[in-house]
Design a protein that fits this description.
By secondary structure, the protein is mainly beta. The protein has one helix spanning 103-106; strands spanning 6-14, 19-25, 28-36, 38-43, 48-52, 55-60, 65-71, 78-86, 95-100, 111-115, 123-124, 130-133. A hairpin with a 4-residue loop joins β4 (38-43) and β5 (48-52). The radius of gyration is 14 Å and the shape is globular.
């Protein structure tokens, strides 16, 4: 756990009807990369969404946010990667963004999904990183 600004990369399989109840985060960039299924997200900022396979969701926790994540299906499991990055000390606002990636964008090539400068339409994060995905 922990390498430079990387806190964790969690690979989660969440069974139907299961998930993580409301819990807090602060000073963290949280990137959820959906591999299969659909995940329902709610947070203390009033954001509610369902993210599906191919989606990438980014949340800057800033000074603090409380959120929950539950499998949106009553029958199918959900499979995802959740990546936590320590945020830069200069970013204190909470932010929620989402991007959908088509397979063709990742097939046999590197697709930039998150970066500090938002290059190539990537999700803009408060840390000096470049996060890529490929198939």
């Amino acid at each position: 756990m922990g390498y430079s600004v990387l806190r964790v990369i969690n690979e989660d399989v969440i069974e139907a009807g299961q998930g993580f109840g409301m819990h807090p985060h602060k000073n963290m960039e949280i990137i959820t990369y959906m591999l299969h299924g659909a995940l329902r997200h709610e947070d203390s900022l009033g954001n509610t969404s369902v993210i599906k396979a191919g989606d990438v969701q980014h949340m800057t926790a800033g000074t603090g946010v409380v959120h929950s994540e539950f499998n949106a299906s009553d029958t199918d499991s959900v499979h995802l990667l959740q990546i936590w990055i320590f945020q830069s000390k200069s970013c204190w606002n909470q932010v929620m963004k989402r991007r959908t990636l088509r397979i063709v964008q990742k097939q046999d090539r590197w697709c930039l999904i998150a970066s500090q400068d938002g290059a190539n339409g990537s999700l803009k994060v408060c840390q000096d990183i470049r996060l890529y995905a490929t198939i």
